[in-house]
Design a protein that fits this description.
single chain, alpha+beta, ATP Synthase, domain 1, nine-stranded mixed beta sheet, 1 helix, about 45% strand, elongated, ATP synthesis, proton-transporting ATP synthase activity, rotational mechanism
Length: about 140
């Protein structure tokens, strides 16, 4: 592998790509603690815990992402991050507010979806039970 001045970072969520671009460094948090990656870091893979992921782009701008659990894969000059949920914040204060509002809303929507699914499952079980009863 040749020495590189930067790395390509891709941050994916289940429904979309949250960030893709060139970066000088990246900071994240694994179950064993916080770590940083520079462009010529050794290849590896790790789980990520709910935390803040920081990316310094090649133009010197730091981007802050609030992530739920996920996985980070560093291979060559490419860093791929896949997370269950994630949001971009302009700074740490706005990120905290965005995470709170977005994740609370997502949790409520997930709760409603689980309740609807439970009702559908219960209805399906009742219908199967009705099919097994002898007809008069």
């Amino acid at each position: 592998m040749s020495m590189a001045p930067d790395m390509h970072v891709i941050l994916r969520l289940p429904t979309r790509t949250l960030f893709e671009g060139r970066a000088l460094r990246l900071r994240a948090v694994a179950p064993t603690g916080a770590f940083g990656i520079l462009p010529n870091h050794v290849d590896f893979v790790t789980a990520l815990v709910p935390s803040v992921l920081t990316v310094q782009t090649v133009d010197g701008v730091e981007r802050f992402f609030g992530l739920d659990e996920g996985v980070l894969l560093k291979k060559g000059h490419v860093v791929s991050v896949s997370a269950l949920r994630g949001v971009l914040g302009e700074d740490l204060l706005s990120l905290q507010q965005t995470v709170e509002s977005t994740f609370v809303q997502m949790d409520e929507e997930e709760r409603q979806a689980r309740a609807a699914l439970s009702r559908l499952e219960a209805d399906m079980v009742r219908r199967f039970a009705d099919l097994q009863r002898p007809q008069p």
